[in-house]
Structure formats: C-alpha cells, structure tokens
Amino acid sequence: MKKGELIAEFAKRTEMSGAAANSAVNTILEIITERLKKGDTVGITGFGTFSVTKRAARKGRNPATGDVIKIAASKSPRFAAGATLKAAVNPKKK
Fold it and tell me: GO CC: one term (predicted)?
C-alpha cells in the first residue's frame, strides 16, 4: 500500500473528504517526524514504537576499489512492532 492508497482508505473509513484525509495523514507523519528529530520516542499502544538509534562512526570498504573508507556517525529511525500488531500479523494456529 502506498501513501495515496492509505489516504484514500482513511477517507473512506472516516467518511472524510480526500483533502481532509490527506491533511490528517500528513499531520500525523509530520508530528512523528518532528518528535524523532528532537530525539523523542513515539509510542502508539498496541501498534508500535518509533525511535531513533545512534550509529557510531566506523570503517568500511569501498566495494569497487577495496579501499578503506571512514563512515561517519549517524542517526537512524527505528520501528518496533507492538504486541497487538504482531498478533494480528501472526495469528495463532489451532
């Protein structure tokens, strides 16, 4: 599912206009992004947790030449699925 499909489904389920649904989805994504930029964690009970992890600087290799290169430290967004989401994706077999 792509973002446009998500917005269309959201509009349908909430009986909102497409423009209002687009605004709502974009606002939620902006809020999550802003909080992650600040270093906060965003937890949505039952769905999951968005967080930022720090990656230390390290040495790597250029695959084309084999030369050793320095890879700068960086931050990376992370998502950990919640128990309810995991259970929905992996239903128990009887």
Answer: cytosol
27-69 residue pLDDT tens: 999 999 999 999 999 999 999 999 999 999 999 999 999 999 9
Q: By the 8 A CB rule, do 11 and 17 touch?
A: yes
Per-residue model confidence as pLDDT tens digits over 10-22: 999 999 999 999 9
User: Which residues lie across from 59 on neighbouring strands?
Assistant: 70
- From the number of C-beta atoms within 10 Å of its C-beta (0-12, 13-18, 19+), residue 21 rates as buried
Whether the CB-CB separation of 24 and 15 falls below 8 Å is answered with no
Transcribe the chain into DSSP letters: --HHHHHHHHHHHHT--HHHHHHHHHHHHHHHHHHHHTT--EEETTTEEEEEEEE--EEEE-TTT--EEEE--EEEEEEEE-HHHHHHHSPPP-
